[in-house]
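Quick check before the chapter quiz. The format below is the same one you will see on the exam, so make sure you can read both the input and the output lines.
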Amino acid sequence: MPSTSLPAALLVVALLLAACAPSGDPPRVEQEAPTVDAPEPAPDAPAPDAPAPDDPAPHEPAAPAEPPSDDPPNLDVAVALTPVVTMDSPIAGDVGPDGALYLAERAGTVHRLTDGVLSEAVVDLSEQTTTDSERGLLGIAFAADGSELYLSFTDLDGASRIDAVAVSDGVVDGEQRRAVFRLEQPFGNHNGGDLHVGPDGLLYLGLGDGGGGGDPLEAGQDLTTPLGALLRIDPQGAEPYGIPADNPFVDVEEAAAEIVAYGLRNPWRFAFDPVTDEVWIADVGQSAREEINRVGFEALFGANFGWHLMEGSLEFAGSEPEDHVPPVYEYDTNGPEGCAVTGGVVVRDPALPDLQGAYLYADFCNGSIRALDVDADGEVRARADLGVDGGSVVGFTTDAEGVVHVLDLGGQVSRLVPG
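Here is the expected output.
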């Protein structure tokens, strides 16, 4: 596996390592909360294909594709990483309506992967973004109906933005793009930016607390700002987007109605388990704890993950709130596991039967791919280093068959295979 060059190393240190460096007691920033650059959508605006009265409520998850096995995963299994392709700065991926895996580069391009060969860029917004600090193209996701590709990136002003690119007959048309969401950012770090379509067909965006050290804007516990939260929107339900009527804070005065869960510092990757619909969120710590959270899909609605009152299971800027959802696993920042957690995926690859149901993750400062086995009550039954090094891991993605791909910001894209 190619080693990361010095310029790339400096770049990625700015991306994640700075996010968790100790910062002491930063001064209070006297600044108004960032604003969402979008008209106020009607909370009850119906989607184009609204469910019939007898259909499930919009946020009810679809039935799992198959029942989860009662057998716990076996983490004592031999695996290997097989190189797939080399890119400049792979950072995110998703499966398109044509069944192909699409990969995004931080500098602003999206490519189709076919038989280990990358296409020319199907989308190129490199002139509309920058890789300064922790910025760039940060996430991609295809609409549930395959009609659009959503891009999560920071624009030239540093604002977090979602654009929708038209997809026709499975072909991405990079020339047809519309603005969906824009949020001003007070600092260059903690942008989050991960993007996924959930089991309900709606779009989820993870946003950090706005940056700075120690959450100077106190955004993590502030429901009036989308910062420090997981958002849930309907890009096709209104112009520029609709807010689902069952979002938990729709009827809360002055709350940002897009929020579905809050109390996050810098959720550097989250994922839905395709079998159970459970949500896994890896949240980069300040100076003491890197944390991994898991909640059921229904429990996600209104969940408070604690920041900035809590950093993992430790009190940070106050007392633990009564509704705090503690992590299922945490480790020391700057400890033996690394310094900045990179969230991963739940293994559902038929070629790795022993790992079925295990959650994979890594750390930007320690490329070892690790696995967690967490029971139904949220207790860790087992954890293991799988003995493979993914480099400067900034993300995981899966192809149409469930094969796990590991994204090394230094350039390598690899797939996880039996050892």
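If your answer matched, good. DSSP finds two helices and 28 strands in the chain.
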